[in-house]
Amino acid sequence: MPIWCVCAYWRGSHVYVSCVDRLSAALASVAQQPPAVVLLDLTLPDSNGPDTFRRLHDRVPDIPVVILTAMDDEEIAVKTVQQGAQDYLLKSEVDGKQLARSIRYAMERQALLTSLETSRRQQLPALYRAKAAGRNRVEVAELKAEAK
Predict the structure, then answer these.
(1) Could you report the per-residue pLDDT of 28-71, keeping only the tens digit for each?
(2) What's the half-sphere exposure (Cβ side, CA atoms, 13 Å) at 39?
(3) pLDDT > 50? residue 1
(4) Closest Cα partner for 144 from 131, 128, 127?
(5) For residue 81, pLDDT beyond 60
(6) Of 8, 19, 25, 141, which residue is the least packed, with the fewest Cβ within 10 Å?
(7) What is the CATH superfamily name and number for domain 5-147?
(8) Could you give the CA distance from residue 87 to residue 39 in angstroms, rounded to a whole number?
(9) Per-residue pLDDT reduced to its tens digit, 131-143
(10) How do the domains of the chain map onto residue ranges?
(11) C-alpha radius of gyration, the chain, whole number
(12) Which segment, 92-101, 114-123, 124-133, is predicted with the most confidence on average?
């Protein structure tokens, strides 16, 4: 059976992998237990093309997704990365070392994005208070610096 969607879970130094053959099963799996990363093929029996990524990403935007597919289409590759995929790899061109590196980098980038989003959310209340108080840009910059 070909592997179409792989969810990887880390517990200490152990990696647990869950493989499913349909997007519907992947959506149910990630809703039940969010994985550390998802390897996603864009050609599944119940979903095909960029919509496959969009549907998964809309459901779990904080989970890094690496596209691993036979679909050799540069336009689709660029589009899915612009929409949030961490990488787009072709099954015919990737080896184990490249795949491991892509997964590791995807997880690191997602952690950074999550950290930036958390920081942004913490700073917003101070910026809104400053704006409401009619403070100028210098004062707002000082408030942002204090928030760090």
Answers:
(1) 999 888 888 999 999 999 999 999 999 999 999 999 999 999 99
(2) 23
(3) no
(4) 127
(5) yes
(6) 141
(7) Response regulator (3.40.50.2300)
(8) 10
(9) 666 655 556 566 6
(10) 5-147
(11) 19
(12) 92-101
Spatial CB neighbours of 45, under 8 Å, sequence gap ≥ 6: 4, 21, 22
Report the predicted TM-score, pTM, of the whole model to 2 decimal places: 0.76
Give the ranges where the chain is alpha helix by DSSP (H): 23-32, 50-59, 74-82, 96-132, 137-147
Q: Are 68 and 41 in contact (CB under 8 A)?
A: yes
Are 87 and 108 within 8 A, CB to CB?
no
Structure-token match 């149910």, residue found: 28
Phi and psi at 105, nearest 5°, equal -65, -40
The secondary structure of residue 41, as a DSSP letter, is -
Side chain identity, residue 20: V
Q: Are 128 and 110 in contact (CB under 8 A)?
A: no
End-to-end CA distance of the chain: 51
Neighbours of 29 (CB within 10 A): 17
Instruction: Please work out, in degrees rounded to the nearest 5, the angle formed at the alpha carbon of residue 115 by the alpha carbons of 111 and 116.
Output: 120
User: Considering the chain, what is the average pLDDT of its residues?
Assistant: 84
Residue 105 or 10, more confident: 105
